[in-house]
Amino acid sequence: QVQLVESGGGPVQPGGSLRLSCTASEITGRLYVMGWYRQTPENQRELVAVISNVGSRRYSDFARGRFTISGPGANKTVTLEMNHLKIEDTAMYYCNIGGSVWSPGDYWGQGTQVTVSS
Fold first, then answer.
1. DSSP letter at 3?
2. How far apart are CA 55 and CA 65, in angstroms?
3. SS3 89
4. Rounded average pLDDT over 4-16
5. Pick from 48, 31, 42: which is nearest to 85 by CA?
6. For residues 47-79, b (16+ Cβ closer than 10 Å) or e, as one string?
7. Tens digit of pLDDT for each residue in 11-68?
8. In DSSP terms, which residues pair with 83 in a beta bridge?
9. What is the pLDDT of residue 90?
10. Integer Cα distance of 102 and 81 in angstroms
């Protein structure tokens, strides 16, 4: 059973920055994808950004240009740098690991809250 440990959420003012990190307890398979999804009480869980271990990346439209995903390296950690945060970025952010940049995998972290407010 893969466990994902997330860190880095919290409150931030509009225009500010946050860094989210997620570390996997183990990784199996030669090709895999790690990344971030987010969810609010009103909306379904949606893609933020994902990256494969061979460097393929996929960003949602709202993340492109503001967020940068990096990793996963030998430390099995993926990092999401979020800049120019907006109030509408407020959500619970979930780490995920799976096999495709087009759909989430089977394992989720517990979530970390990001709250953007003035």
1. -
2. 17
3. helix
4. 96
5. 48
6. bbbbbbbeeeebbeeebeeebbbebbeeebbbb
7. 999 999 999 999 999 887 777 899 999 999 899 999 999 999 888 999 999 999 999 9
8. none
9. 97
10. 21
| Biggest CA-to-CA distance, the chain | 44
Annotate 29-72 with DSSP letters as a single string. Answer: SSS-EEEEEEE-TTS--EEEEEEETTS-EEE-TTTTTTEEEE--
Q: What's the confidence (pLDDT) of residue 20?
A: 98
Residue 32's pLDDT is 87
**Residues recorded for the chain:** 118
Contact between residue 77 and residue 71 where contact means Cβ atoms under 8 Å apart? yes
Rounded alpha-carbon distances, angstroms, from residue 12 to 8, 32, 55 = 11, 31, 29
- What's at 107, amino acid-wise? Y
Gyration radius of the chain over CA positions: 13
Give the separation between CA 70 and CA 103, rounded to whole angstroms: 18
Name every residue whose Cβ is closer than 8 Å to that of residue 32 and which is 6 or more positions away in sequence: 52, 53, 72, 97, 98, 99, 105
